[in-house]
Specification:
The structure is a single chain. By secondary structure, the protein is mainly alpha-helical. The chain has one domain. The longest helix has 26 residues, at 51-76. It has helices at residues 17-24, 30-44, 51-76, 79-90, 100-108, 115-134. The chain starts with 16 loop residues before the first helix and ends with a helix. It has six helices and no strands.
Length: 136
């Protein structure tokens, strides 16, 4: 399989700009962003840092939440479906496949969580994030 980054000016192993555009569209969940900002404010208290640094920390926390949520979605699935998804994702090479984001999305479309399961997933992930951040 040829490397999709060849001849496009990107070093091998780097993601396409399209990948980052797609990822950034999900960074706008105001509820999750507010939770991250509150966690940063609670942890830092009256510590003097610039608003820019505070925003960077909040953004990093949001990215960590997304990572945890992705992992937890798979872990919340029934064992058979979880094993199937893990096997499919294991075959992806994110550094070489420009369409990897679409392939992950197509795999994740087969995920079926009820509203109640999704609430539990969000609650669990937010608690996990809070515990990790506040105790680090």
């Amino acid at each position: 399989m040829s490397n999709p980054s060849e001849g496009r000016g990107r070093p091998e192993g780097t993601a396409s700009p399209r990948f980052f555009q797609a990822m950034n569209q999900y960074r706008n969940n105001p509820f999750i962003r507010a939770v991250c900002e509150q966690l940063v404010a609670r942890k830092l208290g009256s510590t003097e840092i610039t608003p820019q640094k505070r925003e960077q920390l909040s953004g990093a926390l949001y990215a960590r939440f997304e990572s945890m949520l992705g992992r937890n979605i798979v872990e919340f699935l029934p064992k058979g479906q979880r094993d199937e998804i893990k096997q499919e994702i294991a075959h992806l090479d994110l550094r070489k496949e420009e369409d990897s984001l679409e392939r992950i999305a197509s795999v994740m479309r087969s995920v079926s969580l009820s509203a109640e399961q999704f609430q539990k997933l969000l609650r669990y992930t937010l608690q996990e994030l809070t515990d990790e951040f506040m105790h680090s």
